[in-house]
Write a structure and sequence with these properties.
Blueprint (H helix, E strand, L loop, with lengths): L11 E5 L4 H10 L7 H17 L3 E3 L2 E2 L2 E4 L6 E11 L9 E10 L3 H15 L2 H8 L4 H17 L1
Helix pairs in contact: 1-2
Length: about 160
C-alpha cells in the first residue's frame, strides 16, 4: 500500500476553511464518509481525537499528521488538506499548521500504520515538496504532486 492509493479528489482539500484543530479534524474525517458508514467515521474521529489528547500530532514546519486506529474499520483511510488560513494546532514548534495529513487504520494493522506514518513523515519533511503542494489550487494538482514524488522515491 502506498500513500497515493489512499488519496483521491474527494479526500484531498486544496483550501480547507477551519478555525480550530477540532474543526480541521472533523472536516477531514467528513471526507471519508463517502467510503465508510457514519458510525465508522464517528469512531475514526474519536480515535484521532483520543490520539491528539496523548500528544499533539502537529509535527512542526506547518504540518500536522493526525492519526488513529480503531476496530470499526478494516482498511486504512487518509485525507489531506491545505488550510486556507493556518490554524493553531499545539504543534511542537508552537507555530500554526497549514497542511494536515490524516491517517486512520484498523486496530489490527500496527506495522502497516507505522510504515505509512513513517512514509508520510519522510515525504512531508521535504521542504521543496511542501512548497510545491502550497502552490497547488486543486485536488488533482495536489494528487499529481504526490504521484510525482512517489515515482521519484521509487527510483531512488
Amino acid at each position: 500500500m502506498n500513500i497515493l492509493s489512499l488519496l483521491d479528489s474527494q479526500n484531498v482539500l486544496p483550501s480547507l476553511e477551519a478555525d480550530t484543530k477540532d474543526e480541521v479534524l472533523e472536516k477531514l474525517v467528513a471526507t471519508l464518509r463517502v467510503k465508510v458508514k457514519d458510525k465508522e467515521a464517528d469512531k475514526i474521529l474519536q480515535a484521532v481525537k483520543e490520539r491528539e489528547q496523548v500528544m499533539s500530532t502537529g509535527v512542526g514546519k506547518g504540518l500536522a499528521i493526525p492519526h488513529g486506529k480503531t476496530v470499526a474499520i478494516e482498511q486504512t483511510y487518509a485525507a489531506f488538506a491545505i488550510l486556507k488560513e493556518p490554524v493553531d494546532y499545539d504543534a511542537i514548534d508552537q507555530r500554526p499548521v497549514k497542511m494536515v495529513f490524516l491517517l486512520a487504520g484498523p486496530q489490527s494493522s500496527n506495522s502497516m500504520h507505522i510504515k505509512l506514518l513513517s512514509r508520510i513523515s519522510r515525504l512531508m519533511n521535504n521542504s521543496e515538496f511542501r512548497e510545491r503542494l502550497l502552490e497547488c489550487s486543486t485536488s488533482n494538482e495536489i494528487i499529481e504532486q504526490f504521484k510525482s514524488e512517489d515515482i521519484v522515491s521509487l527510483s531512488r
